């Protein structure tokens, strides 16, 4: 019997197989989850990011900081500074962006489970990062004006508890920001099992915008903004991974890149971008 790991319903069906992992869909709550979830999640979260990842991330710092600055602008439409917690902060680049690039005053704090990432965090940010995880946030209640979770919630099976823990540390009228892969994206539908953001067993949950919005509303949050997007470079990589099997196909894809990027933008309008981005207020 395959119970949904979120709502415990037994009404689940096979959805897709990615590598050796089955991903199932709950017909009751509509969430997708990786079957056999949680057996290796702690080891994956601790060990996945090696030094080549860290080196590559630092090499892309300027590119990633521009992306974070764009997302920060969406946050600042609704909250103009204050005490901010970035859960799963990695090397601390979003924290650095908020602290140094914003015109508002952000008192930034980070939480990171991966010791290797914490040890290699940017120097002026490292002292602001605590070792720990979302299941037991080491801060007092009603402490933060803003909590950000970029690509975090899909990694743990304790979704209900984690959202309750975030709510505990977030002030009334505080802002929660969530980013996660969108399994209803255009590229997930086209790429099928080759979609790069399935990523089982590292990703235990697989969300859609509608599921996440309904979940947050049920947790007494007001939705302020919700949209989907993905970096164009990531979109094109997925296209190449799915269709560029020989030299001719690679050339064709290169020639039609402008058309592909136009299609990508249209997909965003219909909530079919690869990443969902949601800003909500605690009420």
CATH homologous superfamily designation: Vaccinia Virus protein VP39
Please give the oligomerization state of what you see. Answer: single chain
Query: Order of strands across the biggest sheet?
Result: 6-5-4-7-8-11-10
What is the CATH fold-level name?
A: Rossmann fold
Alpha carbon gap, first and last residue = 38 Å
- Beta percentage is 15-25%
Order of helices and strands: EEEHHHEHEHHEEHEHEHEHHHE
* Number of helices, where a helix is a run of at least 4 consecutive DSSP H or I residues: 12
Topology:
Elements: E1 12-18, E2 21-26, E3 32-34, H1 41-47, H2 51-59, H3 61-75, E4 82-87, H4 93-100, E5 106-112, H5 115-119, H6 123-126, E6 129-131, E7 144-150, H7 159-169, E8 170-181, H8 186-191, E9 205-206, H9 209-218, E10 221-229, H10 232-243, H11 247-255, H12 257-269, E11 275-282
Parallel strand pairs: 4-5, 4-7, 5-6, 7-8
Antiparallel strand pairs: 1-2, 2-3, 3-9, 8-11, 10-11
Give a verbal description of the structure:
With 283 residues, the chain is an alpha/beta fold. The protein has one domain (12-282): 3-Layer(aba) Sandwich (Rossmann fold), CATH 3.40.50.150. The chain is built from twelve helices and eleven strands. The N and C termini lie far apart (38 Å). The mean pLDDT is 92.
Briefly say what this structure is.
By secondary structure, the protein is of the alpha/beta class.
Features:
283 residues; alpha/beta; Rossmann fold; seven-stranded mixed beta sheet; four-stranded antiparallel beta sheet
């Amino acid at each position: 019997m395959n119970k949904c790991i979120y709502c415990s319903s037994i009404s689940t069906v096979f959805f897709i197989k990615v590598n050796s992992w089955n991903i199932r869909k709950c017909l009751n709550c509509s969430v997708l989850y990786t079957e056999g979830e949680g057996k290796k999640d702690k080891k994956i979260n601790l060990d996945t990011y090696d030094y080549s990842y860290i080196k590559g991330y630092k090499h892309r710092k300027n590119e990633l900081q521009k992306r974070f600055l764009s997302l920060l602008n969406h946050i600042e439409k609704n909250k103009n500074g204050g005490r901010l917690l970035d859960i799963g902060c990695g090397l601390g680049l979003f924290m650095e962006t908020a602290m140094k690039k914003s015109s508002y005053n952000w008192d930034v704090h980070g939480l990171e489970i991966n010791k290797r990432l914490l040890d290699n965090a940017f120097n002026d940010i490292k002292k602001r990062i605590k070792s720990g995880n979302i299941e037991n946030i080491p801060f007092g209640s009603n402490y933060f004006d803003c909590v950000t979770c970029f690509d975090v919630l899909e990694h743990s099976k304790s979704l209900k508890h984690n959202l309750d823990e975030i709510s505990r540390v977030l002030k009334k009228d505080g802002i929660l920001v969530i980013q996660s892969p969108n399994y209803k994206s255009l590229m997930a539908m086209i790429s099928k099992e080759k979609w790069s953001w399935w990523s089982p067993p590292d990703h235990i949950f697989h969300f859609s915008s509608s599921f996440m919005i309904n979940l947050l509303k049920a947790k007494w949050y007001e939705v302020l903004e919700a949209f989907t997007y993905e970096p164009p470079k990531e979109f094109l990589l997925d296209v190449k991974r799915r269709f560029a099997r020989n030299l001719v196909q690679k050339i064709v894809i290169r020639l039609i890149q402008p058309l592909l990027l136009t299609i990508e933008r249209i997909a965003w309008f219909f909530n079919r971008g690869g990443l969902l981005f949601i800003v909500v207020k605690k009420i």
